[in-house]
Amino acid sequence: MHKKRTNIFNNISYIDLYPIQFGYETCSPSHAKPLAKQNNYLLHYIIDGSGEFRNIDTNERVYLTQGQGFLISPDQVTSYQADLYEPWTYYWVEFNGVKAWNYLRKMGFSRNKSTYQTQEGYALDNFINLFEQLLDTNREEETIGTLFLLMDRLIQGSSDFVPIQNDDLNHNQNFYIKESIKFITRNYQNNISIKDIADHCKLSRTYLTKLFKAELETTPSAYLSQYRMNKALELLKDPNQSIGSISDQIGYSNQFVFSNAFKKEFGMSPSQWRNLESH
């Protein structure tokens, strides 16, 4: 029987590391996720059963089982499928942030390696308890703290742990990324452009985009859009908010543009999402 639990986090203003959503899934036999791209990092950790993971960009096609995991990085084309006889059960967390890739590198991930292996003798409960806390809490501070603990636990438990010195990070680049994100969080409700963000940081649009791609593996435009979409999800939970009002509050020029952007992101209209959420 297919079972699924999810929890959505609606605040991406923490900059360094923030969750977007997380969940638990017991898959039915041969349950498959078709080839697709993600906007953020999506990490799966398998606690039972097995299945196959495929990454077109890294040319990986691997069979994974309990105690292993797989990472989908932004804009990589991947697919995965549960085993026919012993379908997998896994936890997953979607996240991003300026320091996200630094944590993932310490776990042993690289641009050409998307799989995770727990070191021998490391108990699964070390991870399960923290994943369950992420699913159960609705407090922002507790969620952020638990995510940091989970990252640390995954680093400690990795058989491919890679120590990375802090000076490996480019602090100047991080400064501009943080300033850009601060500008977005304070002005997303206005009709701001990427040029406005670049001008605020006294950088060219081209260089700002280069920094975002290097640090967050996304573009300033995509980050701004995602921030607005997360705010939209939060507002859509209030039945008294009209679609037009929500559009105005998150910086879209009109309801039509907002609805198109929302459908592109989530595969359904704002009204359809609201109806699903209310049932």
UniProtKB/TrEMBL annotation:
Describe the location of the HTH araC/xylS-type domain by residue ranges.
Answer: 178-276
**Protease keyword on record:** no
Query: What are the protein's UniProt keywords?
Result: DNA-binding, Transcription, Transcription regulation
Q: Which domain of life is it from?
A: Bacteria
InterPro entries per the record? AraC-bd, Homeodomain-like_sf, HTH-like, HTH_AraC, HTH_AraC-typ_CS, Tscrpt_reg_AraC-type_HTH
What's a single GO MF annotation on this record? Answer: DNA-binding transcription factor activity
What CDD domains does UniProt report for this protein, alphabetically? cupin_MmsR-like_N
Q: Which residues cross the membrane?
A: none
For this entry, the protein name equals AraC family transcriptional regulator
Report the source organism.
Answer: Suicoccus acidiformans
